Amino acid sequence: MPTFRFASPLVSIFLLLAPLAAEAAWPPSRCDHVRVLGSGDADEIIEYDGAVLQDADPRQLDALGNALQLMPEVLCQAVRRVAFLERPPEDEGGTVVDAWTNRNENQDLVYLNTWSYLPWNATVVNQSREQRARSIQRFIHEATHAAVRLLQSQQKAEPYRSRQERADPALWPAEVQQLADDVIARNRLDTGVIREWQRIHEAFVAAGMAKPYLDDDWASNDGANSAYLAGAGWMSAYGGEQAIEDIAEMTSWAIIRDATGSADDHACRVMNGRSGPSIGSADAAVFTKLGFLWTLGFLDESHYRDCVGPLAIEAPGDGFHSFVGGEASRSYSSNPRAGVGRGDGEDEQWLIANITADGTASTSAGAFPATIQLILNVTPLVDAMTERGARSDRLAIPVQDASFPRGVYPLGFRNDPINRLQIANRDDGKLIMDVGQGIALIGLASTDGIVGSIAVQRIFNFSGGLLSSIAGDEPVAEPTRITFRYDPQ
Ligand SMILES: [Zn+2]
Fold first, then answer.
1. What is the pTM of this model?
2. What's the 249 CA to ligand 1 centre distance in angstroms?
3. Which of 5, 66, 316, 441 would staple 24 via disulfide (CB 3.0–4.6 Å)?
């Protein structure tokens, strides 16, 4: 009788799946604070019709440990509890939710649905490398919701909070509250992370560089190609639903993108396909949002760099750097400074950020000391999430509640008279140049620094001569692009 003594080891070799991280196992070597609820913990969860709390299977724990090890600190600290719950569709043929968090209570708890073919079903979770990545992405998506609510629980500016944004800070231990408090302070987000994300997105929509959120119509994105989704400002089709889903999709796919060939990391793919650092209008929204997620600590620097690919703002040092075409022409790099304050005179209702540096300007009249200043309106949109629509509502905002400038700002008289870029003669204070039309893009902004780029479309030149540079006796054309960097350290 033939024997098959090799059969068993052969089968197990073929079933071995390469883990996404080296030490996938339970408990994970980091973020081991996460408590997996068991069937006896029903009193800790919210009851859903027909749902049954389950003890976790080792295959589920292995994938969960893997997910936690891929996640930056803020994301994994936001999750304190995980419940594996079998929750069938409410009626035959009805939709099922494969993972969720609750908006109104227990915001530290991620629910994973183990029903049938869903990603966190014990037999599905390890079916293939792609499936495992998809399961982990679902978890990181929910962990991102938990992290947003952790941050919202720490914001200090109470008037801007809406019911949906509230979470009880006591859900998280003191050191995790401190971690979130530091993130809020580093990003000046006392008016709320969802509100700021929404403001960023709406500014890109207004500039024609993104599409409005689709709410319940998001499924109309299904089948849309990567270029369309990224150009709309989203990572994935579902990211087009609303701000909180956009944040969760952008974060989770940027983290998991290298793990599978079938991911929905559309924006990362589009940016990785670019040939150089230049950030076009189709990439500016997703580039900015990924930078924001990095300064929030939702992405590690490696996640950010892997996703944006070759794209970068070329600002070689502190101050302003002008370019003519692709060529660097002049830098204003002395005494860089930045601040936020209230506007003067009839601009008093606005909160204004300014970034300033000194240098030397050259015109046909010769070289002289000059100061360059970028002025941006950073008045928060207090009405973005409320019924109060009037613009005059902005009058009441205290300076300390203003965030950093982030994202896109149309410049100049033809666009927004508040936002401008000017060069003045430092000896007599006279204006020598004003960008009459342009677009400023702030790609990164936190207490660690600010980096941006201005596409110059039209310059008002008050000097009677050319400004950007004089090479020998030959005047060089005016700048087409001006980048800047300010690092407070
Ligand atoms: Zn979600």
1. 0.90
2. 8
3. 66
